[in-house]
Amino acid sequence: MTLFASLYHIKAATCRNAKFVVLVPFTCLTMFLISSIAKFFTNIYIGLWDISLTLFNLVTPKRPVGKVIPEGSPGAGGKWPEFIAPKEGDSRSACPALNALANHGA
Is this structure's pTM higher than 0.90? Predict the structure, then answer.
């Protein structure tokens, strides 16, 4: 028994409205087509977004080593503040990079 036939028999047994029973296979087919089309356009969008970011990174100027962090900010020029141990009530993340930044006052 095919998927549509089994859906038809299940709905025929549970619903007395004949119009609804006829629409079940049509609805399944329609939803399959709509979801396939939506996935296709989503993949196109993600691919175009990825390509545009790659091209943007190729054209934008590169920052020299030591100039990524603005002057006056913690970590500027490779000089990080001393380690500060977490105190009672301090919140820490599951991400080690965020914890390292928090532990050094950034």
Answer: no
